[in-house]
Amino acid sequence: MWRRFIRSKAFILLTFMVIFSFGMLGKIDTRMHIGGGDWDLDSLIYINVSDYILDDQIKQTVPQEIIDTVASDFEPEDNVQTESVFHDSFDFVTGAGVRSDVMAKANEGASADYSNREELVPPTPSTPKVEEKRKPTIFIHKVHAGETLWDIATAYGITIDTILSANDFKDPNRISIGQELQILSVQGVLHKVVSGESLWEIAERYEITVDDISKANDIADPSQLAPNTKIVIPGATRLRPRYVLVVNGQLQKAFDWPVKGRISSPFGPRWGSMHNGMDIAVPTGTPIKAAADGRVTFAGWNGGYGILVIVDHGNGVETRYAHNSRLNVKVGQKVERGQVVSYSGNTGNSTGPHLHFEIRQRNTPVNPHPYLR
């Protein structure tokens, strides 16, 4: 009986020891070595990223360098089964046993009062303002009956030079009904770049800065200027304004001398009659040149004028070249300023070799001298 009791007690004790041993062997070590101390993983739970709460204290932000330090110091013991609690970023609740120096480092630079803390939203970067560069607009104007270049320029608030520079006129004094003209929206001229021409040369010629021309035409690199490019020269005047013979009905100082020489007889009354032109004394055979662009309307003998050439310049303006020895043009021919139309002589009512030169406006003779340049 006693032996049976002893055996049963021994069996119970042995069973208890076996169960206890299995319990010890099956227990997972949940301690984590961090910063020189052991942290119990059972005391850790997940909460919002980058925040932690310690003993029901206020919410604080864990600096990234502390998280990096904690992650680098974690070294699990050999043969210990643990569940990783490390992610790209994490927050934790601490229990007992947290070292004070670790928490002090985590709290460095933290404010003591977070009661009024607001969530900071990074400002949206504003789009930088880019100054718009606009090239001057070019309008198309159709010429109406009775319009002159002066009328058109006045209507658009620009100069005749601006219109002339934007259009390839064979004769600026002749415009026809329905003709289409390019009109710049700014005061200035349109310049066509020729081969080998630089922006610096153009700027110097028009007495304007390279920067002003570059801005008006969106030129990023002034050294790259292609031939035949048309660029606007803001505020500039045409280099050849003298080509306009009539402005607002008034003759301009825009005629070239047909020949250089001494004025032997001026315009005005002479010998009891009216001398309708001026005489320029030159030897026979001297080349006589057109005073402006135009079209020949007469070429031949004409009584007291002798051999005469008449050139029509448009807008009711014509020039006459008399007493020639021979002709160099024919009726209907277009001539350019400076082109030889005849050779001086002593034909007709003449007292010696010379050129009789006239300017007429609407068939009325005017004194040529004020309009010769």
How would you portray this structure in words?
The chain is α+β, with helices and mostly antiparallel strands and 373 residues long. The chain has three domains: 29-106, no CATH class; 138-244, LysM domain (Membrane-bound Lytic Murein Transglycosylase D, Chain A); 255-371, Glucose Permease (Domain IIA) (Distorted Sandwich). It is 20% helix and 26% strand. It is built from seven helices and 22 strands. The chain has helices at residues 2-26, 64-73, 100-106, 149-156, 160-166, 199-206, 210-217, and strands at residues 31-34, 37-40, 51-52, 60-61, 138-142, 180-184, 188-192, 230-234, 246-247, 250-251, 262-265, 268-270, 273-275, 278-281, 287-289, 294-301, 307-314, 317-327, 334-335, 340-344, 354-361, 364-366. The strands form seven sheets. Strands 11, 14, 15, 16, 17, 18, 19, 20, 21 and 22 form a ten-stranded antiparallel β-sheet that branches. Strands 1-2 form a two-stranded antiparallel sheet. Strand 17 (307-314) and strand 18 (317-327) form a beta hairpin. The longest helix is centred in the N-terminal third of the chain and has 25 residues, at 2-26. The protein is rod-shaped and about 180 Å long. The termini are far apart. The relative contact order is 0.09.
Helices and strands, with pairings:
Elements: H1 2-26, E1 31-34, E2 37-40, E3 51-52, E4 60-61, H2 64-73, H3 100-106, E5 138-142, H4 149-156, H5 160-166, E6 180-184, E7 188-192, H6 199-206, H7 210-217, E8 230-234, E9 246-247, E10 250-251, E11 262-265, E12 268-270, E13 273-275, E14 278-281, E15 287-289, E16 294-301, E17 307-314, E18 317-327, E19 334-335, E20 340-344, E21 354-361, E22 364-366
Antiparallel strand pairs: 1-2, 3-4, 5-6, 7-8, 9-10, 11-14, 12-13, 14-21, 15-20, 16-17, 16-19, 17-18, 18-20, 18-21, 21-22
